Amino acid sequence: MTPASRNLELTTSAMQGPTLEQVRPSASGEVDPRLAAAVDAILARRGIAVRTNNLGMFLADVAPELRVEQQLLFQNLRTVGVSPIFRRAEPWVDYEAVRRYGLATGTFRVSMRYQLAGTKLASAATDVGYTYTVRDNRLYLVADDDLDQAIGAKRQPWDFGRVEVVRRKNVLVIVNQGQGALAQKLANQTVQMARQVRKLWKGHLQIVPVIVAMREPQVLTDMPPTLPGDEPARVQPMPAPGISGLPVGGYVVIRPGAQSTFDSAQMTHVLLHLLPVKMGELVPRWLAEGIAEYGENLQLVATGRGAAVAKARSEVSRELLGELTRLPADDEFTTTQSYDISWLAVEHLIKEVGVKPVTDFYFQVGRRGYSQAARERLMQEYTGFTEETLVESLRSLAG
User: Fold this and answer.
1) CA–CA distances in Å: residue 395 to residues 163, 197, 217, 318, 398
2) What residues have CB less than 8 Å from 215, skipping those under 6 apart?
3) Which of 71, 120, 366, 389 is the 20 to 30 Å CA partner of 11?
């Protein structure tokens, strides 16, 4: 009998006692093999059901009170084109779940590994928390949110209300149902600006940018939030399964309040953040923000707003550069001054040495900039500048 078809009756005697306390992790991290087999079979069927569009199979092991919510999840996964595999990661001590559902209850952290149809991205992963309990001699999923705060689960686009998707050859856009016009606009904008970004910075941009523009501000947020700032859009990395450290790609997440006014220059900015997301997290933020601001201002000039860009450059030079002593630190990007200084720093570097040495430096420092000394060595190797000599050069531009 195959795991997918075996009888999943899980009696209290099969669990060696009246509760699941007996199947907490042992010293080796293992759980009771009978419970493990039952949960693994349920999770295997869950992934197969999504991939084969079998709603009945997906809901077969779901408690009645959770089926409406789980049906919505199934529909969203199918709409987005998620091809998931669910794997049991570890049991979790959750006494509140035991009090709520009864003694024969256990909560597990589950790794959901998935690919997005049509994107050619490698498999990504996200964690969810599933609580199972024994009813009528079998195991049912009774809650999927008991670990939301503990592990930051249920923040994926498919975890909220019904979604709508627009696909293009090089774009995937996810919005709330009924927001098709917004999705079409963003898809057109992304196709156009991705071409411009690839001209500016050769290579590395993932094949299909995935754009998320939903009304729920908690979509794809971190727990706790990181990198303070109020940019209209941000990039949320797609973690790879396992412990490789590097993401397989990233989502472009447009904030709810910015969606109606989001323009091509802002799209250029965020795509320049998306482009190097797989390189690593060791890039100094002045470089990351500076190259994004540089690209955004190029697009402003291209769309007839060159006078405003020239005025901004003149004001920053006059007001900030004369007394500049250092480049902005990573935790200082809550004011526009840090963004403006970073813009002029990168623009100046590109004028002095060209785009390729700057983007080559970005690539290398993202992977190898593990200390300030390493950053300085790589910067001097690829651009001829150190942060100190770049600041000195910027001060000479003060108007």
Assistant:
1) 50, 29, 40, 10, 5
2) 176, 256
3) 71
Residue appearing with tokens 């000195």 = 392
How confident is the model over 337-365, as pLDDT tens digits? 999 999 999 999 999 999 999 999 998 99
Per-residue model confidence as pLDDT tens digits over 63-72: 999 999 999 9
Task: Tell me if 67 sits within 8 A of 59, measured CB to CB.
Answer: yes
The Cα diameter of the chain in Å comes to 82
Q: CA torsion angle for 268, 263, 220, 225 (degrees, to 10)?
A: 80
The reported pTM is 0.89
Q: Checking DSSP bridges between strand 210-213 and strand 249-254, what pairing results, if any?
A: parallel
User: What distance in Å separates the CA atoms of residue 45 and residue 305, rounded to the nearest whole number?
Assistant: 55
Q: Which residue has the tokens 């197969």?
A: 48
Beta-carbon contacts of 196 under 8 Å, excluding residues fewer than 6 positions away, are 268, 295, 298, 299, 302
The SS3 of residue 250 is strand
Rounded to 5 degrees, what are φ and ψ at 110? -120, 135
> In the chain, which stretches have pLDDT less than 70?
1-30, 203-207, 223-230, 244-245, 399
Question: For 217-258, how does the pLDDT look when each residue is reduced to its tens digit (9 = 90+)?
Answer: 999 987 555 544 568 999 999 988 877 667 888 999 999 999
The sheet with strand 138-143 has its strands ordered as 82-92, 105-116, 124-135, 138-143
